[in-house]
Amino acid sequence: VRVVVDWDLCESNGLCMAEAPEVFLLKDDDELDILDETPDESLRTKVEAAVRACPRQAITIA
Ligand code: SF4
């Protein structure tokens, strides 16, 4: 899975991290970090949940 975040849209609310903490980390300074831009296929379901959870539609996957 390839994960891309549109940083212009992201508002750092951490909802994606709640769904896929293996991939998304909201840091102490409230900046979102992508821990793994190409997570294993086994994480696809979680990453898809993160895409749906994002209120800004900032996450796209391929
Ligand atoms: S859910 Fe969307 S807006 Fe919120 S931190 Fe994740 S990418 Fe950013």
Task: Describe what you observe in this structure.
The strands form two sheets. This protein has a two-stranded antiparallel ribbon. It is 24% helix and 19% strand. The chain contains two helices and four strands, in the order βαββαβ. The mean pLDDT is 98. It has 62 residues and is an alpha+beta fold. Strand 2 (24-26) and strand 3 (32-34) form a beta hairpin. The structure holds iron/sulfur cluster. The site of iron/sulfur cluster has 15 residues, from helix 1.
Topology at a glance:
Layout: E1 3-5, H1 15-19, E2 24-26, E3 32-34, H2 44-53, E4 59-61
Antiparallel strand pairs: 1-4, 2-3
Bound molecules: iron/sulfur cluster (SF4).
Q: What would a concise description of this structure say?
A:
This protein has 2 helices and 4 strands.
